[in-house]
Amino acid sequence: MPKVMNWQIGREMDYPYEGKRPQSQFAMIIDTNKCISCQTCTVACKTTWTSSRGQEYMFWNNVETKPYGFYPLGWDVNILSRHGVQDISGPVYQGKTLFESAPDGSMVLGYLPEDVDYAHPNISEDDSIGQLAQGAFLQMPHMQWMYYLPRICNHCTYPACLASCPRQSIYKRPEDGIVLIDQERCRGYRECVRGCPYKKPFFNSITRTSEKCVGCYPAVEQGRQTQCTMTCIGKIRLQGFISPPGQENESNPIDYLVRIAKIAKPLYPQFGLEPNVYYIPPIHVPSPFLKQMFGADVELAQQTYRKAADDKQLLAALLLFGASPSILSGFRHQDGQAIGLDKKGEELVRVPFKEPIFVRPGFDEQFQTHRSNAT
Amino acid sequence: MKRMFSTGFLAATLSVMVAGAAQAGAQEAAPESLQALRVSGKGPIVDVGGTIWNQAKAVKVAMQPQVVTMPTNPNAAVKEVTVRSVHNGEWLALLLEWQDYTKSDMVVVDGFSDQVAVEFPVTYKADNPPSPMMGNAGNRVNVLQWRASMQRDLDQGREAKIQDFYPNAPDADLYYTNRLSADAGRPYLGAKGLGNPVSVQSVGPVLDMMAEGFSSLTVRSKQEATGKGIYRDGKWHVTITVPMNPVGKSAPKLEAGQGTIVALAVWDGGGQEVGARKSWSDWVSLTLGK
């Protein structure tokens, strides 16, 4: 099996295909600290992409409550338990990836969920890990905690769905790294559903083929960010492109946040797929849980996030989340404002570091009326 | 990305395996050959329980687990298929019967369809047969696959709907396709809108396909084969019938009095067998009666 370089685990690993990175790689950053699980992203995705017969149960985008929420049921604990205990302590991963753990006769270690596992997309929503004792109060990190995890397809550099498909019906686009299932070629074997540890390919019982998040490619081709990004009312997402390792561009907000500030972390990097959706970890959650989910240096990301107000460059990058429907290729800050730039370096959007404050008197002289504080 | 199994490697591996299988076969006993009995009549022979099968010789074909290409299926469920064959000068038919205690014809995430397939070399050369595992480059096979799920659609007289799988499921508030013309609605139908043969309602329960090795299986533009399957007494009874003078390309031309070879594959849906997760047979010789 060929060896490919996976920068997220700091080493080479086995993968059934040659390592050839796309010209540009679709990526997304999600700030879990700001997500309120309103599911606007889920509904935007649903109405855009999965409104047909056979797609009723599908959520290419979903938001689940961690640690007890899952869609499909138990997706991550199921694969983690099959994967077994792995050494995730150092910058160079010492354990095995899912490709390296593949049982004889399989490309990747995986499992096929049961049909009923998809029946409860909101299971355990808002459940915390326990109750606070009488008289206790929350400290940082919280003793009792939960957080929301929005999920789409990770458009992995080394997709397990693609590796699993015996018909080679799944391809990774060279122009943007988006991973797609060829709907003319797929025969519904569900090897991709079995192989993807994130369980983001879904089987359609009416078309009898598997379908998955398409990274809103028609929008991305036009330089627009995905539906789930643009519709997010909390502006918690930023979608763009990440540069290949070693070619980081400090002015690209995705490169800056992932590779330079190192504040955004991949989901379960130990699986070895090099997923391209990155999460800013929740700062109130104890790190042992987060280390398993986001990698060994998650504490550093939490510390950096806490100090974001003092770091103008970091603050500027964070303020540009959800600020423009267009994909930002660059950013800078000037005079207390974050500025998002397009591919040519032209200004797309400007966001003030501090929102201006307007004070209105309680009595409006012009309209001769009292104003309440409610609006 | 380039797949790292070269065709050369696979062909070499297969030729060794096939040679090995042939040698092992020679040491044990040559598999019994099939005789397609000449019967009267015209047109496709789909009748599963008809008397025409009474005189046809039954041959038990040994099935083996697919363990050559990934994903493998070392614990394949079906070990043996009983095959009978007849022809009427226009159509050749095979009656395939095997034990399966679970009738599986509903396709959901974890629900797979029972299936059976037969393959013929498109051009049979006794000294250079294709690989029995879906042919090989330059040596094409015609693969005819019957699917219990497609049989179910045909028996019901309509395509599957969501309430077939989840009887209490309501329809969604709005399907865009309810409000759009067929053309405008097509993009919302996924594989169905693209006419993927596994997605659209077919005229018969058999997919007429061609292949030149693993991963190359493709549905023929001309669908000529057909068949019928009945589940009875813990067994599937399936006919697959092909025209002896096919109109389209990539299907064998068969003549009374001549011989060819045929190989089988079976999938146990209840055992989640699908695609490469199957049991398969070596080539069995088939002679068409005069």
Helix and strand topology:
The complex is a heterodimer of chains A (375) and B (290).
Chain A: E1 3-6, E2 11-14, E3 25-31, H1 40-49, E4 62-66, H2 75-83, E5 147-151, H3 160-164, E6 170-172, E7 179-181, H4 191-195, E8 201-204, E9 209-212, H5 217-221, H6 227-230, E10 237-242, H7 253-260, E11 265-266, E12 277-280, H8 287-294, H9 298-306, H10 312-319, E13 330-334, E14 337-341, E15 347-352, E16 363-364, E17 369-370
Parallel strand pairs in A: 3-12
Antiparallel strand pairs in A: 1-2, 3-10, 4-5, 6-7, 8-9, 11-12, 13-14, 14-15, 16-17
Chain B: H1 7-27, E1 34-38, E2 59-62, E3 64-65, E4 80-87, E5 91-99, E6 115-121, E7 141-147, H2 148-156, H3 162-165, H4 176-179, H5 182-185, E8 206-211, E9 218-219, E10 226-232, E11 235-243, E12 259-267, E13 279-280, E14 284-288
Parallel strand pairs in B: 1-4, 1-14
Antiparallel strand pairs in B: 2-4, 3-13, 4-5, 5-11, 6-7, 6-12, 7-8, 8-9, 10-11, 12-13, 12-14
